[in-house]
Protein: Major facilitator superfamily (MFS) profile domain-containing protein
Organism: Lupinus luteus
Amino acid sequence: MSMLSAFALGGATTAKPLPLTPPQNHRNKLTKNNQRHSLKPNLTFHTRFQSQFLCISSPSLRKLPRLRVSSSNDARFNSVPEESQVQQQKQSNFIEFITSERIKVVAMLALALGLCNADRVVMSVAIVPLSLANGWSRSFAGIVQSSFLWGYLLSPIAGGVLVDNYGGKVVMAWGVALWSLATFLTPWAAETSLLALLVVRIMLGMAEGVALPSMNNMIVRWFPKTERARAVGISMAGFLLGCALALTLSPILMSQGGIFSPFFIFGLSGFLWVLVWLSATSSTPDRCPQISKFELQYILNRSQKSFPVEIAKPNKVRVVPPFRRLLSKPPTWSLIVANAMHSWGFFIVLSWMPIYFNSVYHVDLRRAAWFSAVPWLVMAVMNYLAGLWSDMMIQSGKSVTLTRKIMQTIGFVGPGLCLIGLATAKNPSLGSAWLTLAFGLKSFSHSGFLVNLQEIAPQYSGVLHGISNTAGTLAAIIGTVGVGFFVELVGSFPGFLLLTSLLYFLAAIFYCLYSTGEIVDFDDPVG
């Protein structure tokens, strides 16, 4: 009773405080620790009241310090996992992506593909003055241009096997060096003999056949699944910009430095690229001395969710791929059909659009080259945006299979509809608008079948790309030659565009029926 009186009278009686038990003593230490963390207004007690509160029953004593301590230390301790979760969510943000080592790799790939396309396109611009200077007929000029495809037809499968066994870095370096040498030697060959020119053009095609398999191999090693469409988009944007650059710069360079000046400039640029590529990049992230531990761990962790990075190492791949099993699976044929249709449309536009604008709309050659170059610029921009959207769909929870089918449908149905508009356009401006829109939508294919090659067979992505690329080259040859025969027989350039539109629709249906975004077991002898 005396203790309660003392509490009620505000300390008139001097009651000795009860001795502290070990748990209370522990809480007292926590209180002192909390006072160091700027919580003095909440946990500081007057000496007179401290002795009185200690006289309260133990349940009340437990409640007060426990509430105070949990509001400080628990909040501080619980913030650690929250910060860790936030850090994990920000691992692949935009700033980290554009400053990473993998963006340097994909930038170099984009430059290589830009040179690849520029070296093949420059002849389509130079063929007119070369034909006039050497007295070539139109049919022979067509043979000179198609000789590139002869070499390109031979190398993709062999190049794919080399890529799977020796890696994309080494094969890409050799490819760029050889096609740059062929480009540099083209002026000499043209002035030496027709046979020498054809040999150099075939050499150019053979060397460039390894470019896309090497690109795929490097991307599958350096980028996790959620970033591969973006990486392919950047790489193919360089490829398309190379075409636009060659179409616009070649006439200017020829007027200033002669017919052969573009060949010298692009050839020397390729040699410079090889030096930078060999000194500044690594075949795999774990061999890169400049890569940060954070980025390496990020790539390895994300890649293991789809397949281990080590699968891409040379010693894991057979010298002779299982061609029969590769061709026995419907997903393989969906990629072959998609690549064939993609190449059909690509090479038709590449080879015939300047002539189309010249013959149908009667615009001069330089203006026709400009009309043909604008779509490539738009396609380069849309390429990256399509890849970014594709990666965002997968990150949001959409299946890889559904994402690839959506991208490929846009990439085929969109151009098919636009070619119908181009065939009915009444003036060159409207025709160029339809062609530009067709190319912008066509770029979605690179986030469809082109990324899909890496996903269904990561260990055979090079040879699978080679097989589908060979089918694409055959389709390109048939389409490029077929345009001339079709126009002569039917007498209608727009009619061939309508035929191509129909083929786009059929290819889109076939791909959606038989494609998949999951790994296909090509080593399984059954099925």
